Structures
1.
Amino acid sequence: MLPTISSALQQANAVQLTDPLDDTGARRPHGSEPIKKLGKMALEQARPLAERFIHFVNKTGSPYHSVQAIKEILTAAGFEELQERTSWKMTRGGKYLVTRNDSCIAAIVVGENFTKESHGGFCVTATHSDSPCLRLRPRAFAEKEGYHMGSVECYGGGLWHTWLDRGLGMAGKVVLRKENKVIERLLRFERPLFYVPNLAIHLQTAEEIGAFKINKENHLQPVLCSAIADQLGTASSNSDDSPKTAEQRLPPALARLVGKTLGMPDAALLDWDFCLMDATPSRISGIYEEFIESPRLDNLASTFAAFEALVDASSGKECDQQCAGREDILMAVAFDHEEIGSQSLSGANSSLLETWMQRCLRALDCESDFFEILAKSFLGVVIKENANQNYASNASTMAFVRLIANEANVPVQDFVVRNDSRCGGTVGAMLSARLGVRTVDIGIPQWAMHSCREICGVTDLMYLQKLLKHPRREAAPAAKVAML
């Protein structure tokens, strides 16, 4: 289970928590050459994966675009797409993908030797495709003080003050009707379209500045354009570019932009699901380029690492040497709506994962063994534990991860919430309770979680992917036996 957490960032590879000793037993400063060399090597090794992640996240902006970007990775790696509306045909050794609502996706790798008798089970890595954001309402047009505004609502528990004073792009899905056919299209506008301005300093007293709290309804409605600029733009453009709507629910300028981008002026715009997003691209930052600065790190960092790990563990020469005769079914799943409780057809608090597992077994003629196989399954850096079961980890599953991490040379930390601080939750606890599957919650630390822009470590992403890939290679028999 891989949601990221908000603890302070610690680069375990570059900084040791205790002072190291030299050959004489004296304490060495942290800036000693061996530690510098270790940190530099790790950064160099982690750089290619970090750059691929940045390329990935710069194509996203909505759960639909996240799933589309994951699907591109899987398709390029030879995964075959299955459709929920048709029967599934699967073979041992096969690689498959399936989506629901265009916002949830699973990758499935069937072990060559998967059978009930082989003690095989499911090994699932679960993440989520959504992030806190501002979403356009069904009636998204507002006009105030001579400006055309977008009307938005807050999705999830964001740090909403961080959305002020930055250019906001937009990504999502539109639904149209053309020639009596309903058509769905994904759209992404990476350039800044919206802006939520702060109040100028001379219009506030020091007391007002200190006491200011964001009112989500009054303070977060973004400016799109001035009314006069829109009039001038209408006069100089072809009004036929705007798709037909029964009523003006989108700002006129935005409706024209949608129609022009789609190239479908005759289509009737029925509805949309648009997320606003930080228009500044993700990037590697810091004087030593040790940080990734990006929107949507929660949870796309874990999502990217999970699917990359599954691809690496199921293809290539390295896999052929280490994974021959695999007995498990490997899955990576990115659910939607985690930020708002997961209670939806594409969320983790639904029958989705259970249904997909059963369909896999039916296609492999093992459906009658579902519950027996489930008992052998595992949902599987920072190990997150909570005595009140907000996280799904327990002593057995945490020990399993520690053994795997030790064999993979991946440093780990433990994360426990203070007694006087509220604890977050993940999809892990609900999946574990629903399926009765052993689960551990893990992730990488980050700064400013749920901000419009978050930060994590370059090497942390590499370590997470390395950890997730390692058990996929059946390289930890001792750990696996300990879990049976």
Note: Residues 120 and 328 are 5 Å apart (CA to CA).
2.
Amino acid sequence: MKKRALSLLLAIALLCTLLPIGTAGVKAYSETDIAYPVEGGNIYFDKATGTITDCDDTVTSADIPAEIDGVAVTVIGNGAFYYCSSLTSVTISDSVTIIGAIAFHCCSSLTSVTIPDSVTSIGDWAFEGCSSLTSVTIPDSVTSIGYGAFFGCSSLTSVTIPDSVTTISSGTFNQCTSLTSVTIPDSVTSIGGHAFYSCSSLTSITIPDSVTSIGDSAFSYCNSLTGIWVDEANPNYSSDASGVLFNKDKTELIQCGGAYSGDYTTPDSVTSIGFCAFFGCSSLTSVTISNNVTSIGFCAFEGCTSLASVTIPDSVTSIGYDAFCGTEYYNDENNWENNVLYIGKHLIEADDIISGEYAIKDATLTIAEQAFYDCRSLTSVTIPDSVTSISFATFGDCTSLTSVTIPDSVTSIGDCAFSYCGSLSDVYFGGTEGEWNVITIGDDNDALLNATIHYTNDEPSEEPSEPSEEPSEPNEEPTDPSEEPSEPSEEPTEPSEEPSEPSEEPTEPSEEPTEPSEEPTEPSEEPTEPSEEPDEPEIPTENPFTDVKASDYFATPVLWAVGKNITNGMSATSFAPNANCTRGQIVTFLWRACGSPEPTSTKNNFKDVKAGEYYYKAVLWAVENGITTGLSATSFGPNATCTRGQVATFLWRSQGEPAPTSTNNPFSDVKTSDYYFNAVLWAVENNVTQGMGGGKFAPNASCTRGQIVTFLYRAIA
């Protein structure tokens, strides 16, 4: 069996932000809240703000009036009808201008809603999970539709987008599986990533000449989509006779409709095949890639279950992760040579059962990203001199790899190419020391850089020595960036001990690493948990980590976290404080900080959370305790990078969702409609964080491991 089945990683990548479950669940009524009777119960109204704030779970129908107790109703608040599963219909008066985030989240019985012409904004995830909603008319007054506003409205068959809308946000109609047609008006300039992802009944789409931007996988996994047709006057995009979407000059193939069948040959003008370009084209049988193509993107042909024949030219120098996963060619055991899959002169993937020494075939031109990832029994590999680059995470997590032979033809080694290769002791380079020094080596390749490099003019006096002891397996794996992350321009200064009267909270690093586009799988084994949680663990006096200095703001939190058995670092000597933290890691940290309690149930709806993964129990516990419900009903996204807004929300929920004592908001980028609003205010009040400086919290920025343990320390210690 191959180490990767059809990954459907798009289902993880499609969300730009965490589904905000906590805000709506809190019925923190103010003194100005009053009850207003409707069918089946009450709705609750804040007279001070003119906002519908909540409703009883028993409400079946709501006719929202223009006024309540003499005060105009202007806002349907965040989570006002959150999870009101008995609600079947709602009528909104024309006094309302805003429908807030998750306002009708998972109202699974809601079949109809009337949105008046007065509404100008529909918030993020406003109708997410309204699986009985069959149609919706968005009035001309609406100028903004939030992220995932109609995500998972699986009964929605038609939708009218008015000319007033300029942006279709990321995930807006994601998984609207009954949607058969949609008209994009000439006013729209931007279509966000995954906007129509998995709209399996959508048959055709026309892109007007006004559209200047189309996000990743906007139309991926639309199995009935016969074509994406672009207005000829559009200056940015074009389509061919088969309805395949390209950039204007047809150098980049962006997306093929999911219903395409038979053979396909890329035009000679194409130089790159984009991210998930043919993802899920289950009737595609053969593809010939033209000689000018140099790169094939991540998941480009994943899930093309009938694709049995592939021709890749010698011109291709880069092949993304899972580019051919789940194809008929991939699944045919006869195409694997000694547990390694090649297509022409390109090495696509090695099965993780491969062991011992392996010599890559002579004349191989390209090694795909993560080709040998998690091959933990591989001990030695020889790369032929036909290879010029080693891709992203190619040998990541090859924990038994002790030696590698690299030819002098190699000019670049990608990020994380040898990450977590803790046993790597010897590198045999086919050139001189000077030639080695000019190779471009990406981030997170410490194992490679710490190994002994043997050059052609250096005759080794003995066989490469085995390491004296097996390095410890990391408890968790950091996010592997797809491009070089920018280092903070200045390291925040924070004393190793908290001063008794701090005049100002130290700010977090001014820049965050960029969000990854793909992520290697976490280690499959769960790190050993401590058998007993000490009542008052002391902060260790000795620091084992070479990358944590006493002057670092996170120094004390890191040692505290080690003392509490929350984390043991990435290795015996490395904590990786500047590496991005994943969702799997943060829930594991929280779970351990709370004593690693056993989940009360083994129920697990997440396809990407497997028993045996280090975060398995932590995820189940987090769901049980309302800390998260995942990215969707079946996806948790354990390897997705956690944002600052998400982390603040996780911490806040873990502490019982306490209401902030003040509504004073110091941040210009945190709005009352944001799911993390209360969490951020609580975090500031409790000195968990004071933001990034300059009146910014940066809620969507990635959170590093150093920041995570610092937040935990301040919130829990």
Note: The first strand starts at residue 33 and ends at 38.
3.
Amino acid sequence: VEEEKPEPIEEEKPKPVEQEQPKPVEEEKPKPVEEELSKQVEEEKPKPVEGEKP
């Protein structure tokens, strides 16, 4: 009776929890922030300044 539930309980939730939120969180908001700030600033004052003094 003491050898029926000694380890099977520690091998059912020891790794699946560390492999469910280790990278998906760092790959969801790493570049979209640098691609949204570099396209809105270069499309607001990139040519209108060179077309005012020809």
Note: The radius of gyration is 27 Å.
4.
Amino acid sequence: MTETTMARPARRRATTQATADRILEMNRQLSLTRSVLAATLETATASQLEFMQRWFEAELASREQSRRLRLRKQAAFPADKTLDGYDWSNLAMPAHSVYVEAQFERIDTAPDTPGTGDEGPDSPADPDRNDPAGAQPGSTTTN
């Protein structure tokens, strides 16, 4: 008998042997003693093999689910929050926000004003400073 397959008695059917092989493969993931399991599988009936297969599959599924829950918890994802069911009846607009919105509206409709930084109306960068008639289209000024 090799480590990956068990002895095949002549009386065993192919499906029974396939089930036993599947159980041995699942055992690798379950960390059970392989030699003890192989000895048990050699004497097990077909219904016992089916039972063991269902048992191992359920155990593997349970471990996978536990693993996923544990990893999700370790990842510390933020809680899934929605606004469904929120009580909106006590919601009122604060007075300050109305004032701020009014200020923004006034600023948006105000006319454009010249800059008051380094480049004021008397700055050397002002093209109209040396041209009393103002900048005319097509005219060039030299400083």
Note: The CA atoms of residues 72 and 117 lie 56 Å apart.
